[in-house]
Amino acid sequence: MTIFLILVLVAVRAQAVAAAGVSAMFIMGDSSVDCGENTLFYPLLHRNLSLLPCQGSQTSLLPYLLAEKMGLPNRPLPFYRQNGTIEQLTSGINYGSAGATIMNIDSQSHQCLTQQLRQVFETFQLLDLHLGQDSAQTFVNSSIFYLSFGKDDYIDIFLAENTTTTRSREFAEVLVHQVVMVVRRLYEGNVRKIICMGILPVGCAPKTVWELGGEKNGSGMADGCVEEVNELVLEYNKMLADGIVELQKELFDAEMVFCDVYLGVMEILANPAKYGFEDTENACCGLGMHGVVIGCLSEEMACNLSSSPHVWWDLYNPTQRVNSVLADSAWSVDQEHSAATSICHPTAVKNLFETSLLPPYHVP
Ligand SMILES: *[C@@H]1O[C@H](CO)[C@@H](O)[C@H](O)[C@H]1NC(C)=O
Ligand SMILES: *[C@@H]1O[C@H](CO)[C@@H](O)[C@H](O)[C@H]1NC(C)=O
Ligand SMILES: *[C@@H]1O[C@H](CO)[C@@H](O)[C@H](O)[C@H]1NC(C)=O
Ligand SMILES: *[C@@H]1O[C@H](CO)[C@@H](O)[C@H](O)[C@H]1NC(C)=O
Ligand SMILES: *[C@@H]1O[C@H](CO)[C@@H](O)[C@H](O)[C@H]1NC(C)=O
Ligand SMILES: *[C@@H]1O[C@H](CO)[C@@H](O)[C@H](O)[C@H]1NC(C)=O
Q1: Which of 54, 108, 144, 318 is spaced 20 to 30 Å from 61 by Cα?
Q2: Could you report the per-residue pLDDT of 162-195, keeping only the tens digit for each?
Q3: Does the pLDDT at position 130 exceed 90?
Q4: What are the backbone angles phi and psi of residue 161, rounded to the nearest 5°?
Protein backbone atom coordinates (compact mmCIF):
# COMPACT_ATOMS: atom_id res chain seq x y z
CA MET A 1 0.00 0.00 0.00
CA THR A 2 2.70 2.44 1.02
CA ILE A 3 4.77 1.49 -1.99
CA PHE A 4 1.75 2.01 -4.21
CA LEU A 5 1.22 5.47 -2.72
CA ILE A 6 4.84 6.37 -3.25
CA LEU A 7 4.62 5.19 -6.85
CA VAL A 8 1.52 7.32 -7.40
CA LEU A 9 3.23 10.32 -5.82
CA VAL A 10 6.32 9.83 -7.97
CA ALA A 11 4.15 9.54 -11.07
CA VAL A 12 2.21 12.71 -10.19
CA ARG A 13 5.41 14.56 -9.52
CA ALA A 14 6.96 13.44 -12.80
CA GLN A 15 3.86 14.62 -14.62
CA ALA A 16 3.94 17.98 -12.88
CA VAL A 17 7.55 18.45 -13.94
CA ALA A 18 6.82 17.35 -17.49
CA ALA A 19 4.02 19.90 -17.73
CA ALA A 20 6.40 22.81 -17.12
CA GLY A 21 6.92 24.87 -20.23
CA VAL A 22 10.65 25.08 -20.77
CA SER A 23 13.77 23.01 -20.27
CA ALA A 24 16.19 25.71 -19.13
CA MET A 25 17.08 29.36 -19.49
CA PHE A 26 20.12 30.68 -21.32
CA ILE A 27 21.10 34.29 -20.78
CA MET A 28 23.12 36.78 -22.81
CA GLY A 29 23.65 40.40 -21.84
CA ASP A 30 25.36 43.10 -19.78
CA SER A 31 25.10 44.27 -16.17
CA SER A 32 21.35 43.76 -16.41
CA VAL A 33 22.10 40.02 -16.24
CA ASP A 34 25.51 39.77 -14.55
CA CYS A 35 26.95 41.22 -11.32
CA GLY A 36 30.53 40.81 -12.47
CA GLU A 37 30.62 37.11 -11.54
CA ASN A 38 31.02 36.18 -15.17
CA THR A 39 33.46 38.86 -16.18
CA LEU A 40 37.07 37.83 -16.35
CA PHE A 41 39.31 40.37 -14.62
CA TYR A 42 36.27 42.47 -13.80
CA PRO A 43 37.94 44.08 -10.79
CA LEU A 44 40.66 45.35 -13.12
CA LEU A 45 38.53 46.23 -16.08
CA HIS A 46 35.40 47.69 -14.61
CA ARG A 47 36.56 51.13 -15.79
CA ASN A 48 34.47 53.73 -14.05
CA LEU A 49 31.47 51.51 -13.53
CA SER A 50 30.63 49.71 -10.30
CA LEU A 51 32.50 46.73 -9.03
CA LEU A 52 29.16 45.50 -7.76
CA PRO A 53 26.59 46.54 -10.35
CA CYS A 54 23.80 44.63 -8.67
CA GLN A 55 22.25 44.22 -5.31
CA GLY A 56 23.79 41.27 -3.56
CA SER A 57 23.79 38.54 -6.16
CA GLN A 58 22.78 37.53 -9.67
CA THR A 59 19.44 36.37 -8.30
CA SER A 60 18.37 40.00 -7.79
CA LEU A 61 18.43 40.43 -11.58
CA LEU A 62 15.44 40.26 -13.89
CA PRO A 63 16.16 37.03 -15.81
CA TYR A 64 16.67 35.13 -12.55
CA LEU A 65 13.42 36.49 -11.16
CA LEU A 66 11.67 35.27 -14.32
CA ALA A 67 13.38 31.87 -14.11
CA GLU A 68 12.02 31.64 -10.57
CA LYS A 69 8.48 32.36 -11.80
CA MET A 70 8.89 29.59 -14.35
CA GLY A 71 9.81 27.26 -11.52
CA LEU A 72 13.02 26.21 -13.23
CA PRO A 73 14.71 23.81 -10.85
CA ASN A 74 18.22 25.08 -11.55
CA ARG A 75 19.71 28.51 -11.70
CA PRO A 76 21.63 29.29 -14.90
CA LEU A 77 25.33 29.14 -14.09
CA PRO A 78 27.80 31.83 -15.14
CA PHE A 79 29.65 30.59 -18.24
CA TYR A 80 33.06 30.83 -16.55
CA ARG A 81 31.85 28.97 -13.46
CA GLN A 82 30.45 25.86 -15.16
CA ASN A 83 32.59 22.87 -15.99
CA GLY A 84 30.97 21.58 -19.16
CA THR A 85 29.34 18.55 -17.51
CA ILE A 86 25.91 17.67 -18.82
CA GLU A 87 24.27 18.38 -15.44
CA GLN A 88 25.60 21.91 -15.51
CA LEU A 89 24.95 22.58 -19.20
CA THR A 90 21.34 21.52 -18.84
CA SER A 91 20.89 23.83 -15.84
CA GLY A 92 21.16 26.70 -18.29
CA ILE A 93 24.12 29.06 -18.73
CA ASN A 94 24.55 32.79 -18.27
CA TYR A 95 26.98 34.14 -20.88
CA GLY A 96 26.24 37.71 -19.83
CA SER A 97 28.98 39.96 -18.62
CA ALA A 98 28.80 43.28 -16.77
CA GLY A 99 29.76 46.04 -19.17
CA ALA A 100 29.18 43.96 -22.31
CA THR A 101 28.26 45.90 -25.42
CA ILE A 102 26.61 45.01 -28.70
CA MET A 103 29.46 46.53 -30.67
CA ASN A 104 32.90 45.02 -30.35
CA ILE A 105 34.67 48.19 -29.32
CA ASP A 106 37.11 47.07 -26.78
CA SER A 107 38.01 43.48 -27.36
CA GLN A 108 40.42 42.98 -24.47
CA SER A 109 37.84 43.58 -21.81
CA HIS A 110 34.14 42.90 -21.84
CA GLN A 111 32.54 40.12 -23.77
CA CYS A 112 30.52 41.67 -26.53
CA LEU A 113 27.41 40.19 -28.12
CA THR A 114 29.19 38.14 -30.79
CA GLN A 115 31.68 36.75 -28.29
CA GLN A 116 28.78 35.54 -26.17
CA LEU A 117 27.18 34.06 -29.28
CA ARG A 118 30.35 32.08 -29.92
CA GLN A 119 30.15 30.65 -26.41
CA VAL A 120 26.50 29.70 -26.99
CA PHE A 121 27.53 27.67 -30.03
CA GLU A 122 30.32 26.02 -28.02
CA THR A 123 27.61 24.92 -25.59
CA PHE A 124 25.48 23.58 -28.46
CA GLN A 125 28.42 21.47 -29.63
CA LEU A 126 28.93 20.06 -26.14
CA LEU A 127 25.21 19.27 -25.90
CA ASP A 128 25.43 17.43 -29.22
CA LEU A 129 28.34 15.38 -27.91
CA HIS A 130 26.69 14.58 -24.59
CA LEU A 131 23.12 13.96 -25.74
CA GLY A 132 23.28 13.18 -29.43
CA GLN A 133 22.01 15.61 -32.03
CA ASP A 134 18.31 14.86 -31.77
CA SER A 135 18.01 15.16 -28.01
CA ALA A 136 20.28 18.20 -28.00
CA GLN A 137 17.99 19.85 -30.54
CA THR A 138 14.89 19.09 -28.50
CA PHE A 139 16.59 20.45 -25.41
CA VAL A 140 17.61 23.67 -27.19
CA ASN A 141 14.31 24.27 -28.92
CA SER A 142 12.42 23.90 -25.64
CA SER A 143 14.71 26.27 -23.73
CA ILE A 144 14.28 30.03 -23.36
CA PHE A 145 16.99 32.43 -24.50
CA TYR A 146 17.07 35.83 -22.83
CA LEU A 147 18.95 38.75 -24.42
CA SER A 148 19.53 42.08 -22.71
CA PHE A 149 22.04 44.47 -24.27
CA GLY A 150 22.52 48.03 -25.43
CA LYS A 151 22.76 50.13 -22.30
CA ASP A 152 26.52 50.10 -22.28
CA ASP A 153 26.76 50.90 -25.97
CA TYR A 154 24.97 54.13 -25.24
CA ILE A 155 26.96 54.82 -22.09
CA ASP A 156 30.38 53.91 -23.49
CA ILE A 157 30.28 54.98 -27.07
CA PHE A 158 27.54 57.40 -27.68
CA LEU A 159 27.70 59.55 -24.60
CA ALA A 160 31.47 59.35 -24.40
CA GLU A 161 31.87 60.55 -27.98
CA ASN A 162 29.17 63.17 -27.52
CA THR A 163 27.65 62.80 -30.95
CA THR A 164 24.12 62.92 -29.64
CA THR A 165 22.59 65.00 -32.36
CA THR A 166 24.39 63.89 -35.48
CA ARG A 167 24.15 60.18 -36.05
CA SER A 168 21.72 58.79 -33.53
CA ARG A 169 19.56 57.02 -36.09
CA GLU A 170 22.45 55.28 -37.81
CA PHE A 171 23.85 54.25 -34.45
CA ALA A 172 20.57 52.64 -33.39
CA GLU A 173 20.29 50.95 -36.79
CA VAL A 174 23.72 49.36 -36.48
CA LEU A 175 22.97 48.09 -32.96
CA VAL A 176 19.55 46.70 -33.85
CA HIS A 177 20.95 45.07 -36.99
CA GLN A 178 23.51 43.24 -34.82
CA VAL A 179 20.93 42.04 -32.29
CA VAL A 180 18.53 40.86 -35.00
CA MET A 181 21.41 39.06 -36.71
CA VAL A 182 22.24 37.25 -33.46
CA VAL A 183 18.59 36.26 -32.91
CA ARG A 184 18.60 34.84 -36.43
CA ARG A 185 21.80 32.89 -35.74
CA LEU A 186 20.23 31.49 -32.55
CA TYR A 187 17.23 30.41 -34.60
CA GLU A 188 19.55 28.65 -37.03
CA GLY A 189 20.99 26.87 -33.97
CA ASN A 190 17.43 25.58 -33.25
CA VAL A 191 16.51 28.13 -30.60
CA ARG A 192 12.74 28.70 -30.70
CA LYS A 193 11.90 30.77 -27.60
CA ILE A 194 13.48 34.20 -27.30
CA ILE A 195 12.98 37.10 -24.90
CA CYS A 196 14.60 40.28 -26.15
CA MET A 197 14.86 43.20 -23.72
CA GLY A 198 14.94 46.87 -24.57
CA ILE A 199 17.08 49.45 -22.77
CA LEU A 200 15.88 51.14 -19.60
CA PRO A 201 15.70 54.96 -19.41
CA VAL A 202 19.44 55.65 -19.18
CA GLY A 203 18.60 59.37 -19.19
CA CYS A 204 17.06 58.99 -15.72
CA ALA A 205 19.98 57.04 -14.19
CA PRO A 206 21.74 58.98 -11.42
CA LYS A 207 25.06 59.17 -13.26
CA THR A 208 23.48 60.60 -16.40
CA VAL A 209 21.33 63.08 -14.53
CA TRP A 210 24.16 64.45 -12.42
CA GLU A 211 26.65 64.54 -15.28
CA LEU A 212 24.49 65.80 -18.12
CA GLY A 213 21.46 67.08 -16.29
CA GLY A 214 22.34 70.69 -16.69
CA GLU A 215 19.11 71.97 -15.20
CA LYS A 216 20.39 72.26 -11.68
CA ASN A 217 18.49 74.67 -9.53
CA GLY A 218 19.77 76.70 -6.60
CA SER A 219 20.34 73.70 -4.33
CA GLY A 220 22.58 72.03 -6.89
CA MET A 221 19.93 69.39 -7.50
CA ALA A 222 19.01 68.32 -10.99
CA ASP A 223 15.42 67.77 -11.96
CA GLY A 224 14.03 64.66 -13.58
CA CYS A 225 15.68 62.97 -16.55
CA VAL A 226 17.92 63.94 -19.42
CA GLU A 227 15.45 63.91 -22.28
CA GLU A 228 18.04 63.83 -25.07
CA VAL A 229 19.50 60.60 -23.74
CA ASN A 230 16.10 59.01 -23.25
CA GLU A 231 15.14 59.88 -26.81
CA LEU A 232 18.18 57.99 -28.09
CA VAL A 233 17.25 54.94 -26.07
CA LEU A 234 13.62 55.16 -27.18
CA GLU A 235 14.71 55.22 -30.80
CA TYR A 236 16.71 52.04 -30.26
CA ASN A 237 13.87 50.33 -28.37
CA LYS A 238 11.33 51.14 -31.06
CA MET A 239 13.60 49.90 -33.82
CA LEU A 240 14.38 46.70 -31.94
CA ALA A 241 10.71 46.04 -31.20
CA ASP A 242 9.94 46.45 -34.91
CA GLY A 243 12.90 44.27 -35.85
CA ILE A 244 11.67 41.46 -33.61
CA VAL A 245 8.13 41.70 -35.02
CA GLU A 246 9.48 41.46 -38.56
CA LEU A 247 11.69 38.51 -37.71
CA GLN A 248 8.82 36.73 -35.98
CA LYS A 249 6.74 37.01 -39.17
CA GLU A 250 9.52 35.35 -41.11
CA LEU A 251 10.45 32.70 -38.52
CA PHE A 252 6.90 31.80 -37.63
CA ASP A 253 7.65 28.58 -35.76
CA ALA A 254 9.64 30.56 -33.20
CA GLU A 255 8.14 32.45 -30.26
CA MET A 256 9.71 35.84 -29.66
CA VAL A 257 8.79 38.60 -27.28
CA PHE A 258 10.18 42.09 -26.88
CA CYS A 259 10.03 43.50 -23.34
CA ASP A 260 10.00 47.24 -22.87
CA VAL A 261 11.79 47.83 -19.58
CA TYR A 262 11.85 51.52 -20.46
CA LEU A 263 8.08 51.64 -20.03
CA GLY A 264 8.26 49.73 -16.75
CA VAL A 265 10.93 51.94 -15.16
CA MET A 266 9.20 55.14 -16.33
CA GLU A 267 5.97 53.94 -14.75
CA ILE A 268 7.82 53.48 -11.45
CA LEU A 269 9.53 56.87 -11.71
CA ALA A 270 6.20 58.55 -12.40
CA ASN A 271 4.45 56.84 -9.45
CA PRO A 272 7.18 55.91 -6.98
CA ALA A 273 4.92 55.76 -3.91
CA LYS A 274 2.53 53.35 -5.63
CA TYR A 275 5.37 50.84 -5.92
CA GLY A 276 6.89 51.60 -2.51
CA PHE A 277 9.83 53.75 -3.55
CA GLU A 278 11.05 56.85 -1.78
CA ASP A 279 14.22 57.82 -3.60
CA THR A 280 14.15 58.08 -7.39
CA GLU A 281 17.32 60.12 -7.84
CA ASN A 282 20.26 58.90 -5.82
CA ALA A 283 22.32 55.76 -6.19
CA CYS A 284 21.97 53.51 -3.17
CA CYS A 285 25.53 52.26 -3.46
CA GLY A 286 28.27 54.63 -4.51
CA LEU A 287 30.52 57.41 -3.31
CA GLY A 288 30.40 61.14 -3.68
CA MET A 289 27.46 63.40 -4.21
CA HIS A 290 24.33 61.32 -4.96
CA GLY A 291 26.56 58.26 -5.02
CA VAL A 292 27.63 58.87 -8.59
CA VAL A 293 31.24 59.99 -8.37
CA ILE A 294 32.49 56.46 -7.81
CA GLY A 295 30.29 53.45 -8.43
CA CYS A 296 29.47 50.72 -5.93
CA LEU A 297 32.68 49.06 -4.74
CA SER A 298 31.32 46.89 -1.95
CA GLU A 299 28.05 46.06 -0.30
CA GLU A 300 29.12 47.89 2.85
CA MET A 301 28.82 51.12 0.91
CA ALA A 302 25.15 50.51 0.18
CA CYS A 303 22.29 52.42 1.77
CA ASN A 304 19.76 50.60 3.92
CA LEU A 305 17.13 49.75 1.35
CA SER A 306 14.56 48.68 3.93
CA SER A 307 14.43 52.08 5.54
CA SER A 308 15.06 54.04 2.34
CA PRO A 309 13.74 52.28 -0.77
CA HIS A 310 15.75 53.46 -3.79
CA VAL A 311 14.95 53.03 -7.47
CA TRP A 312 18.62 53.06 -8.42
CA TRP A 313 21.20 50.70 -7.05
CA ASP A 314 24.24 52.36 -8.59
CA LEU A 315 25.24 54.64 -11.43
CA TYR A 316 23.03 53.03 -14.09
CA ASN A 317 21.42 49.92 -12.59
CA PRO A 318 18.10 49.60 -10.73
CA THR A 319 17.56 47.88 -7.38
CA GLN A 320 16.16 44.39 -6.92
CA ARG A 321 12.84 45.94 -5.94
CA VAL A 322 12.59 47.57 -9.37
CA ASN A 323 13.55 44.29 -11.00
CA SER A 324 10.75 42.57 -9.07
CA VAL A 325 8.18 45.03 -10.38
CA LEU A 326 9.58 44.56 -13.89
CA ALA A 327 9.48 40.79 -13.50
CA ASP A 328 5.82 40.96 -12.45
CA SER A 329 4.94 43.19 -15.39
CA ALA A 330 6.88 41.06 -17.83
CA TRP A 331 5.41 37.84 -16.53
CA SER A 332 1.72 38.67 -16.88
CA VAL A 333 -0.70 41.57 -16.82
CA ASP A 334 -2.62 40.52 -13.74
CA GLN A 335 0.15 40.46 -11.17
CA GLU A 336 -0.45 42.54 -8.10
CA HIS A 337 2.43 44.95 -8.60
CA SER A 338 2.69 45.00 -12.33
CA ALA A 339 2.14 48.07 -14.43
CA ALA A 340 -1.31 48.23 -16.02
CA THR A 341 -0.23 46.57 -19.25
CA SER A 342 2.41 43.94 -19.73
CA ILE A 343 5.70 45.43 -20.79
CA CYS A 344 6.21 42.51 -23.19
CA HIS A 345 4.85 42.21 -26.74
CA PRO A 346 3.17 40.53 -28.48
CA THR A 347 2.51 38.52 -25.35
CA ALA A 348 3.56 38.27 -21.70
CA VAL A 349 6.39 35.93 -20.76
CA LYS A 350 3.96 33.69 -18.90
CA ASN A 351 2.19 32.92 -22.17
CA LEU A 352 5.46 32.23 -23.92
CA PHE A 353 6.08 29.75 -21.14
CA GLU A 354 2.63 28.19 -20.93
CA THR A 355 1.53 28.03 -24.54
CA SER A 356 4.63 26.10 -25.33
CA LEU A 357 4.06 23.73 -28.23
CA LEU A 358 7.09 21.80 -27.16
CA PRO A 359 7.29 19.42 -24.27
CA PRO A 360 10.32 20.31 -22.17
CA TYR A 361 13.15 17.88 -22.52
CA HIS A 362 14.47 16.01 -19.50
CA VAL A 363 17.94 14.65 -19.55
CA PRO A 364 17.67 10.91 -19.03
C1 LIG B 1 37.24 57.43 -15.58
O2 LIG B 1 36.75 58.74 -15.35
C3 LIG B 1 37.73 59.76 -15.44
C4 LIG B 1 37.11 61.08 -15.03
O5 LIG B 1 35.78 61.18 -15.42
C6 LIG B 1 38.26 59.78 -16.88
O7 LIG B 1 39.24 60.78 -17.04
C8 LIG B 1 38.84 58.42 -17.22
O9 LIG B 1 39.24 58.39 -18.57
C10 LIG B 1 37.82 57.32 -16.97
N11 LIG B 1 38.46 56.03 -17.14
C12 LIG B 1 37.99 55.08 -17.97
C13 LIG B 1 38.78 53.82 -18.04
O14 LIG B 1 36.95 55.22 -18.59
C1 LIG C 1 31.47 19.88 -12.08
O2 LIG C 1 30.89 20.64 -11.02
C3 LIG C 1 29.99 19.90 -10.23
C4 LIG C 1 29.33 20.84 -9.23
O5 LIG C 1 30.23 21.72 -8.68
C6 LIG C 1 30.76 18.78 -9.53
O7 LIG C 1 29.85 18.02 -8.74
C8 LIG C 1 31.38 17.88 -10.59
O9 LIG C 1 32.15 16.91 -9.98
C10 LIG C 1 32.25 18.70 -11.54
N11 LIG C 1 32.67 17.83 -12.62
C12 LIG C 1 33.89 17.89 -13.17
C13 LIG C 1 34.17 16.91 -14.26
O14 LIG C 1 34.71 18.70 -12.82
C1 LIG D 1 12.59 20.42 -31.72
O2 LIG D 1 13.57 19.45 -31.98
C3 LIG D 1 13.09 18.13 -32.20
C4 LIG D 1 14.30 17.21 -32.39
O5 LIG D 1 15.04 17.61 -33.52
C6 LIG D 1 12.14 18.10 -33.39
O7 LIG D 1 11.59 16.82 -33.49
C8 LIG D 1 11.05 19.12 -33.18
O9 LIG D 1 10.25 19.18 -34.34
C10 LIG D 1 11.66 20.48 -32.94
N11 LIG D 1 10.59 21.44 -32.73
C12 LIG D 1 10.64 22.68 -33.25
C13 LIG D 1 9.44 23.53 -33.02
O14 LIG D 1 11.58 23.07 -33.89
C1 LIG E 1 28.46 67.75 -26.15
O2 LIG E 1 28.76 68.74 -27.07
C3 LIG E 1 27.98 69.92 -26.92
C4 LIG E 1 28.31 70.87 -28.08
O5 LIG E 1 29.52 70.57 -28.66
C6 LIG E 1 28.30 70.54 -25.55
O7 LIG E 1 27.53 71.72 -25.37
C8 LIG E 1 27.93 69.52 -24.48
O9 LIG E 1 28.26 70.02 -23.20
C10 LIG E 1 28.71 68.22 -24.72
N11 LIG E 1 28.25 67.21 -23.78
C12 LIG E 1 29.09 66.39 -23.15
C13 LIG E 1 28.49 65.36 -22.28
O14 LIG E 1 30.31 66.43 -23.32
C1 LIG F 1 15.68 71.85 -6.53
O2 LIG F 1 15.11 70.65 -7.04
C3 LIG F 1 14.91 69.65 -6.06
C4 LIG F 1 14.43 68.40 -6.76
O5 LIG F 1 13.34 68.64 -7.61
C6 LIG F 1 13.90 70.15 -5.04
O7 LIG F 1 13.70 69.18 -4.04
C8 LIG F 1 14.43 71.43 -4.41
O9 LIG F 1 13.48 71.96 -3.52
C10 LIG F 1 14.76 72.45 -5.49
N11 LIG F 1 15.42 73.60 -4.87
C12 LIG F 1 15.13 74.84 -5.21
C13 LIG F 1 15.90 75.88 -4.50
O14 LIG F 1 14.32 75.11 -6.07
C1 LIG G 1 17.60 48.87 7.91
O2 LIG G 1 16.41 49.55 8.26
C3 LIG G 1 15.43 48.71 8.89
C4 LIG G 1 14.14 49.50 9.04
O5 LIG G 1 14.38 50.76 9.57
C6 LIG G 1 15.98 48.20 10.20
O7 LIG G 1 15.05 47.35 10.82
C8 LIG G 1 17.28 47.43 9.91
O9 LIG G 1 17.86 47.01 11.12
C10 LIG G 1 18.26 48.27 9.13
N11 LIG G 1 19.39 47.43 8.73
C12 LIG G 1 20.64 47.80 8.90
C13 LIG G 1 21.68 46.82 8.43
O14 LIG G 1 20.95 48.84 9.41
Answers
A1: 108
A2: 555 557 888 899 999 999 999 999 999 999 999 9
A3: yes
A4: -85, -10
**Structural element, H or E, at residue 256:** strand 255-259
Long-range pairs of 155-160 with CB within 8 A, sequence gap ≥ 24: 155/202, 155/316, 156/101, 156/105, 156/106, 157/101, 157/103, 157/105, 158/232, 159/208, 159/212, 159/229
Q: Where are the domains of the chain?
A: 23-267+341-354
Radius of gyration of the chain (CA): 21
Using the predicted structure, report yes or no on whether residue 18 has a pLDDT greater than 50: no
Contacting residues for 352 by C-beta, under 8 A, at least 6 apart: 21, 144, 193, 195, 255, 257
CA–CA separation, 272 vs 275, rounded Å? 5
CB 98 within 8 A of CB 110: yes
- Specify the ligand 2 atom closest to the Cα of 83: 1
| Model pLDDT, residue 5 | 46
Distance 161 CA to ligand 4 centre (A): 9
For domain 23-267+341-354, which CATH number applies: 3.40.50, 3.30.1760, 2.60.40, 3.30.1330? 3.40.50
Secondary structure element (H or E) that encloses residue 196, with its range = strand 193-197
Question: Using a 6 Å cutoff on CB, does residue 306 contact ligand 6?
Answer: yes
Residue nearest atom 5 of ligand 6, based on CA coordinates: 307
Pocket test for ligand 4, best of 155, 159, 162 (most atoms within 8 A of CB): 162
Ligand lying closest to the C-alpha of residue 284: 6
Torsion 160-164-166-167 (CA) sign: positive
CA of 83 to the centre of ligand 2 (A): 6
Distances (CA, A) of 85 to 9, 11, 210: 30, 28, 46
Distance of CA 116 to the CA centre of its chain: 14
CA proximity to 230, closest of 259, 266, 264: 266
